[in-house]
């Protein structure tokens, strides 16, 4: 158990521009034509769902990892991990310190390249794509320290995030032809996002002047504005009190109810409450994946990680 493990933020979680010195994935954006642009302008809601708004899990993996492996010298930080995360699923990844959780996220987001294996989003192999390209394909990531620009308005912040996926590496001429469309798309998506995170009436306010709670809303809005299919949440509640932790998770569940979520979280009680399924990593390997009840009852997990908690 490591609920008391409030790590200092490591390089991989400081911002989305890959400051991690170990980052070796290609940072060059590959040229993308208009056809690969995500044309969704609004923030869709779930088609079907459980009473809490989450879609039923139908064995329809939106994100898969296949034999994903990352070595650092002799150390195998992530060892042959096969994940299949269903569309709409709330999946948590837990494991002792050093189990490979953050490395796994870095491999999925593209901040790190794998030594072996593949990352597949919606049937497309994205392993060779840069982090930015993966965001455009629909892999969003929220960070403990985010890129909110305090001096800009709430709306400007959201527009910047929306624009990062709407605008593509088009030639100047193509950009000119598409500029009105792209402008409309950014506007529509920003408006829908502000509505969804409950900040529509604060759109003009300076982001730096927001209350703590509204800032968390804006941070989620920045992720949502990229219209992600899958959102990687790396310890979104680190350092928070129990109360704030619960309200943050409630907010995530509300705002991102129709997205596929992958969460790293040290608060096991919380993970047990919110997850559809939990993957337990141990020394880089997937120990087990299952429902909270199945994981809590798994003897291997109890031995390796949960200790007495499962007996409570
Ligand atoms: N850039 C790196 N260079 C060398 N070793 C690394 C690097 N990044 C991670 N590691 C090692 O890989 C292993 C997995 O680390 P990782 O941070 O992924 O674990 P974690 O499960 O996220 O741990 P924690 O719960 O403490 O955050 C650890 O032994 C760590 O020391």
Automatic annotation (TrEMBL):
This is Probable branched-chain amino acid transport ATP-binding protein LivG. One of its GO terms (biological process) is amino acid transport. CDD domains: ABC_Mj1267_LivG_branched (cd03219). PROSITE patterns: ABC_TRANSPORTER_1, ABC_TRANSPORTER_2. Belongs to the ABC transporter superfamily. Residues 63-308 form the ABC transporter domain. One of its GO terms (molecular function) is ATP binding. Residues 10-42 have a biased composition (Low complexity). It comes from Halobium salinum. Pfam families: ABC_tran, BCA_ABC_TP_C. Keywords: Amino-acid transport, ATP-binding, Nucleotide-binding, Transport. Residues 1-65 are annotated as: Disordered. The keyword Nucleotide-binding applies. Probable component of a branched-chain amino-acid transport system. SMART domains: AAA. InterPro entries: AAA+_ATPase (IPR003593), ABC_transporter-like_ATP-bd (IPR003439), ABC_transporter-like_CS (IPR017871), BCA_ABC_TP_C (IPR032823), BCAA_Transport_ATP-bd_LivF (IPR052156), P-loop_NTPase (IPR027417). The keyword Ribosomal protein does not apply.
